[in-house]
Amino acid sequence: MGNSDSVTRLGVFTSGGDAPGMNACIRSTVRTAIARGLEVVGLRRGFAGLLEDDFVEMDLSSVSNVVQHGGTILKSSRCMEMYAPGGREAAAKKLREHGIDALVPIGGDGTFHGAHLLWEEHGVRSVGTPGTIDADLFGSDSSIGFDTAVNTALDAIDKLRDTAESHDRLFFVEVMGRHAGYLALEVGIAGGAEAVLLPERDLPLEALADQLLAGKRRGKTSHLVVVAEGDQAGGAFEIAKRVGELAEMDYRVCILGHVQRGGSPTARDRVLASRLGAAAVDALLAGETDKMAGEVGGQVVLTPYEETWVKKKPISPEMLDLAGTLAM
Ligand code: F6P
Question: How confident is the model at residue 1 (pLDDT cuts 50, 70, 90)?
């Protein structure tokens, strides 16, 4: 265990919410592993496929012509069995039966929880990559899919601004991010939002209504508020109703939802995914385990799985300030 010599057959899988760029990461993992002389097996539907013997042998051509596609060729799932010790024991047994020595999980904190417990309880080696549109994992500035999701949301916001402007309306746009406001903040700044509501910050709705009214008095004719899905004040519909009433403004709500999870990955996401997939393979071969390969300040860094969810990735105060200043 922990011996790099023991890696001959590698398992790769995508798990949790899918994210554009996962295919680029699978491709990079498979091709790097083959280049280093390893066999590679794809586990379909994440941990669920592992428990149900849903495996696919991967060769160089299994990942041809996938880099530009959204979704994941290996499919994904959220596997509740992995939260129970019995499920993890069954998963470790399947890996032994199929001769899989190590894993590259591509996913978010739920995926890494599972991988961490597989290492702790059963010595299953893995180095993961952050595949989630939320960019909420400590140990990586961005994550695979985040940049694409920002651009998808931005495209929608630009279109909403057109209709908001035509009708002198207030729009509330809800973006994804159950526990995290990184996506909302980037989209808010890039889309010129009048306000951004994040789970990490408490903004009283009375203050928001006053701010919108002040803008209106200064001559603003359209107003756009970006709401992160997990905002403390509630969902976009509830917030819109309260603020609309307080400000006495005509409002509409748009929930962008799963649209943000699809589409062809941006160049940034493809490159990030390619770098991190290769880094995960090389880290395993160097004897690493129980870690995520992320990118910080342009450099690939390894962070213990547990730190990726225990340590809080701060929302940049500078970005928050900027969003406030530019919204005036
Ligand atoms: O974690 C990624 C994410 O898209 C979150 O932003 C969102 O809250 C959640 O997944 C939605 O999950 P599901 O696709 O299971 O509804």
Answer: very low
Angle of helix 85-97 relative to helix 109-122, nearest 10 degrees, comes to 70
Which of 201, 227, 261 is at the close of a domain? Answer: 261
- Cα(166) to centroid(ligand 1), Å: 32
Which protein residues touch ligand 1 with a CB less than 6 Å away? 17, 108, 132-134, 176-178, 229, 261
Strands 39-43 and 9-14: parallel
106 Cα–ligand 1 center, Å: 15
Total domains in the fold of the chain: 2
Digit-coded pLDDT (tens) for 204-221: 999 999 999 999 999 999
Q: What is the pTM of this model?
A: 0.96
Give the C-alpha separation, 197 to 190, whole Å: 15
Confidence of residue 328 (pLDDT cuts 50, 70, 90): confident
Q: Is 242 exposed, middle or buried (0-12, 13-18, 19+ CB in 10 A)?
A: middle
Domain that holds residue 102: 9-133+265-310
What's 234's domain CATH number? Answer: 3.40.50.460
- Contact at 8 Å (CB) between 326 and 192? yes
In a domain, 204, yes or no: yes
Share of the chain above pLDDT 70, in %: 98
- pLDDT for position 5: 54
SS3 content of the chain, % helix, strand, coil (to 5): 45, 20, 35
